[in-house]
């Protein structure tokens, strides 16, 4: 275990954390404001990546593909809200789970029909190619650093919108008491639509950023969705600050655990036993963390006001 390896894995953990935050931020707002369980949020992450593949093929420019994919992800999220999700707001959570699971199946098969089942990708832009030297003889990819910075900038922008604007005030009020907000004359349906659309765009942004370094393939959002739910449980439902802290925490715990848990167990177990126990424990770390947080703080680390 060297200092260079630790530094690299910390950066990888931060990168995973900001991707999880981009997905979880929209999910926690939808859950917190609308009390709506959207299992299909992960496919919006997947669609962002596939849309970027298509727009890159049309434009040949990563940044143009990014902008077009974000607009398309926003439009597609609003379309889903209009066609499917708004009809489920007054239904119980079981109906929401079943309906959104059906949307997952439909969209996963849809991308297989449109784009095929083979993994796709698009290149890292030349502007963000190369590496940043961390130590002598070793560099870290500029694109991954850019992903971290883009995620942090998005978190700051989202914090400003939620805490310093009228829309953000309504979102926070809706997360605390949506019935009162509606009674005061606010068009709660329009608020729901705005929250849902921008949540879909954030998830799509995460998918676009992940596309050049991960395989773009059907079902790629399923694992991210599970981690995003862990994020909002740990951070607190409806809390952007909680989602940010929990996402970074999970990214670091998962990445560092998978990298070093076996080495840690080798300090007091035989190598063969450590090779078996280490990966098993590493895969459980984030769920153990979630269990610990729920035991001591059932509402999460930073629950929204009124929860």
Automatic annotation (TrEMBL):
Protein name from the UniProt record: Branched-chain amino acid ABC transporter permease
Positions of transmembrane segments: 6-29, 36-56, 62-85, 97-122, 142-162, 191-214, 226-256, 277-296
Any one GO MF annotation of this record: transmembrane transporter activity
Location(s) in or outside the cell: Cell membrane
One Gene Ontology cellular component: plasma membrane
Organism lineage: Bacteria, Pseudomonadati, Pseudomonadota, Alphaproteobacteria, Rhodospirillales
One GO BP: amino acid transport
UniProt xrefs under Pfam families: BPD_transp_2
